Protein 1
Amino acid sequence: MQLRSTFMGVLASFFWAPWSLGAAAEAQTSGGSKADGGLQKMDFGKTPEGMPVELYVLKNGRMTVKVMTYGATITELHVPDRRGTPGDVVLGFDNLEGYLGNNPYFGATIGRVANRIAGGKFTLEGKGYALALNQGPNSLHGGRKGFDKVLWKAEEISGPDGPAVKLTYLSRDGEEGYPGHLSASVTFTVKDDDELRIDDTATTDKATPVNLTNHSYFNLAGPASGTILDHELMLAADTYTPVDDTLIPTGEIASVRETPLDFTTPTRIGARIDQLKGDPGGYDHNFVLRGGEESPALAARLYDPKSGRVMEVFTTEPGVQFYSGNFLDGTLKGRGGVVYRKHQGLCLEAQHFPDSVHHANFPSIILRPSMTYTQTTIYRFSTR
Ligand code: BGC
């Protein structure tokens, strides 16, 4: 990883001639040397502790992605519709205050462990660990102050693939109850073929569970356009992991056939959503992907008939959590004053399975000092 970023840094100086990454005011007007692309850095306010937050604007071809250092968060993602008109396709807030407040993980990087750990407890190498409980009896998305609520360090590593920013964070031994110093990185690259690539890495000095993901809420018609129920979804998954009332997997790997979870052929999301039980109701399931592992494989294809936008998700991960924004309840006002109601956005979180620490039959999420954790997920956009 170290070698790779050094190499990219050298390449950057050849292909992406000097951008000023100095003072925010200057940077507001700086751009890339390529006519249709570039990277800008801006000021995005301060954390309650007074630490400055930076916003990086990555542009390439027809795509613009904004990423901030608080939570390694995607704040905006603009791609063209079928008429060629660009528009934002993710939910978010106007300013940092929005993200610091009541925020259901909009666009954030989730860690150290995405999704739930039952009882917030696990045993590793004979030692018991107790995590912060932040959702009923369980630990969700890394605990009270997960990776979505910390400040990451940014480094511009743009190369021939396009503008890129690498965010790094050192999670201390014992943070949120997890063992070992974990050194994590998330690199966002915007390629000129309407593709956002996210590469995650992590290393540790003690065995620890790790399961990182990005928690963007997509609405391909635009966040102000209503619900995602008319989007059509295809998932490359024949099975899923059923859960109990607190959304903890039972351990079973069940077939999606003849259930409302069968998205093996493109299906309107709203078509069968009412058949799902539970409160608040909707999709919130981990789908077991057919494969990939080494190179990113197709996990999902999402299509919005209104705008014509298509988003394909490719990943090296074994699972994808399809969450249909069930807990959005109209109490949050997002960017431009838009009220976010139930099902106004959806997440396709590429990750290992929820509560993997308690299920020996799930792919392991234990990272050891001799290993490097990597995961790559690509969001590719097109139109129909
Ligand atoms: C989970 C949901 C949770 C949501 C939080 C998703 O990843 O699967 O159960 O409510 O994140 O916004």
Note: Residues 112 and 142 are 5 Å apart (CA to CA).
Protein 2
Amino acid sequence: MVKKAVKATKGKPKTPTKYVYFFGNGKAEGKGGLKELLGGKGAGLAEMTNLSIPVPPGFTISTDACVEYIRRRRKYPPGLWDTVLKNMTRLEKTMSMGFGDPSNPLLVSVRSGARASMPGMMDTVLNLGLNDQTVQGLIKKTHNERFGCDAYRRFIAMFSTIVMDVKREVFEECLQAKKTSLGCTHDIDLNARALRELINEFKILVQRHAGRDFPQDPIDQLRMGTNAIFDSWNGDRAITYRRLYKIPDAWGTAVNIVAMVFGNMGNDSGTGVVFTRSPSSGAATLFGEFLSNAQGEDVVAGIRTPLPIAKMETAIPSAYKALTKIHRKLERHYCDMLDLEFTVQKGQLYMLQTRVGKRTGIAAVKIAVDMVKERLITKEEAVLRVEPEHLEQYLYPVFDPSAEARFTKQGKGLPAGPGAAAGKIALTPEQAIAMKAAGDRVVLVRMETSPDDIHGMSASSGFLTARGGMTSHAAVVARQMGKVCIAGCEAVEVEGDSSVRIGSARFNKGDFISINGFDGSVYEGDIPVMASEVVQVIQGTLKPEKSERYQYFSKVLQWADTFRSLDVRANADAPDQAAVARGFGAQGIGLCRTEHMFFAEGRVEIMQNMIMARTTSDRMKHLDELLPLQKQDFIGLYRKMDGYPVTIRLFDPPLHEFLPKREDLMVQVARAELTGEDPATLAKTKRMLARVDELHEFNPMLGLRGCRLGILMPEITRMQVRAIIEAACEVTKEGGNIFPEIMVPLIGTWGEMRTQKQVIQDVASQVMAEYHKVIPYQVGTMIELPRAAIMAGEIAEEAEFFSFGTNDLTQTVFGFSRDDASKIINFYMTMQDRCPHCQAMDIDQKTMVCRACGFQIAKRLDNILSGDPFTTLDQKGVGGFIEIAIERGRAARPDLKIGICGEHGGDPSSVEFCHRAGLGYVSCSPYRVPIARLAAAQAAINHGVIAERKPSARRATRPASKRGKTATRSRR
Ligand code: ADP
Ligand code: MG
Ligand code: MG
């Protein structure tokens, strides 16, 4: 019955949509789970209210309202404004104050809040509701004229810059002039009279720069503020941020209207930001900062360097005690590390925001593992808490400690983003971009950073700022981007765009500087780096028990291994790579590219001779020279991979890659002919040129390569198989367990597979007979052509395993050349930002007019590609071929082994696809093995384990009831 009723109203909702959610007096209409509707901030305020945590009352206008407003071209949906006004009345009652009431004025903040937090993006307006009359009421109530005037002048400046587009400097200059004329240095030195004068001067400035009077009607102020927040969703900064972090444009932002509390009412008041644990190391202590006698964004903006939070204990003990209680309560409730904003008004603590805190990869792992020990979360949740890519931070190099001691330390700041960065100083984002483009390592040095610096920040390896705390813009961005950051380093004094003083030294842009993000030290010069602790353990130069960091890293991966059903192998061609791969937990080699072995020192010449050979017997002579070398390579690999499978791909690239370039040879010939020197060399060069001409192909990637080479020149295959099996026999003699998988590349037809398999089996049997050994080898193929995928059933009659070579498969399915298509792909991914008329990427986001051609854009283009298919597997197209191949291959051969060895094997979302598609393993580069292990575990947890294939991993599935709870809590 209920279902029916819902259905009936679906087309035409009878009850009007609820757009506004009130919270106050310990009860909220919303709750924490409604993030999509209320935005992160609104959901958090509602949840805290429901937990009886002191939050000033208010209400949230939903993201749906914003989406409607944008859809209706900046008009409210019907009934919205009435509802807002009704909730305003309710807020007045709750507070026993009147909005616009001159004797007892209610003031509010107007705050944006999208589903995902977008730091520093949309600004909050504080003290809204002040005007010439209400300011008098505020003064009377607080008996503090200075406070009232200060609040009003701040409000005029803030509202006018954020909502009315007046430039901030307009007010700053005026303020500065006032201070100069009165001989004051700080804002705080201005008395009430000076502030009153400022208010009048500000109002005149507003009139001049905005072309209208400062709005005196609080209701007007409220409407303008709300509109500004809705509009800011489509502002330049917001759009840039969304592109960078792949946040959909369709979400919209919520608006929070919250009754004001005042942190600027004296020394028993203040405002602050804390993390419940360290966001950079994960250490379990309250971490953050506060500023006494201050309001709002003073902390976040990094304008004054605030005090560490521990100092609040002596400054306002009662509030500090309340804060520690609340922080524990909230951590226990959310079961995660949180980022909290608060204000203290005359000793009374108010919470203004809670959200799951952003953290570095190192902190993410430590917090997850610690919270399991504290029984706050399960191992499964811990595994879901760490972003696979974030594990890379454990592999970042650190400064070589002995070298670090020799360099001069010039300052110390807050270690806001861990790691070691050394590079050239850039003092503006533009310099950073230019230096990066020139191939330099860059450290961006600023007084403070702002959202406009974001491109320069992403071009830098690290940031150093003079101002700001652990929660400043630079710090937050660093942790998100995984960059090194030192914030609040008072020794730094930027002098314009070309020089900076740090401690006792003066640097010009382009000079070298080194910053240690683990302890906050800043050094002159370029300190050499060395391997991270984890890498040192893997390399055997550090004992695991000596490294706490390694222990945390391996703990979370051990847990991951209990959940995943995919095996993880590595792509490795050399024993040292194989050793690293094993150290990171690889369960075999999924791709050994044998041609890499031919490019080695002293081997290219033999290769060239082999290619130059005119007859088979001549070619075999040179191949015989290669045989022992190649065999030695395999022996090395097998020893490192004892007990695990090693997939060896037969020779794949076109031969011309081993010969000099045609143009170079022509130049050499011409030069030798001119000078008449050395006729023997000339003749040889000419012969080589002739062979290059003969091998010349218009499209070598689709030419004589892969199995086609082995079919036309079976002696190459024979030599390689002999090396593979001889090496296996010899390592078996040493007691090793070797499982070679011989992989034939670029198969398109059954016949190709059959032909090569026969060659392989002949040689293998012969070698095994010579050695009196039986090697359990398999013969299979790479699936990298659309035809192979479609004909997988036939091919699987011969092939004992498939490995998806998704680099080539992507090339051939799309018809994109990997080396040439990046320009097209980049274009396809940026259609949304282009003018539909002239294609320029220069659209004024507010007016939607193309700055290049003046075209008024009615509708944006859609992106043709959402991502680069060479980085993230195209699941529909290329993935479709993979699914067909798996289905047909398994139908023909139920025990067919299937894996993937393309670049995608280490990309978390592609790993997830592989899990769902039912592959047996993924193979990726050795350093991405930990990432793939974690991604595979997350895929198994999120999508259920494919139980038929891997009964041993079944414990990963948990009762559905429990799993539901996990999902809401751990999604970030
Ligand atoms: P952001 O999204 O940048 O974090 P917020 O909306 O959280 O912006 O506002 C920034 C700061 O402004 C808050 O941390 C808080 O200090 C202050 N603030 C916001 N609303 C109020 C309020 N109602 N009373 C007092 N301070 C407030
Ligand atoms: Mg802000
Ligand atoms: Mg905030």
Note: Residues 341, 353 surround magnesium ion (ligand 3) (CB under 6 Å).
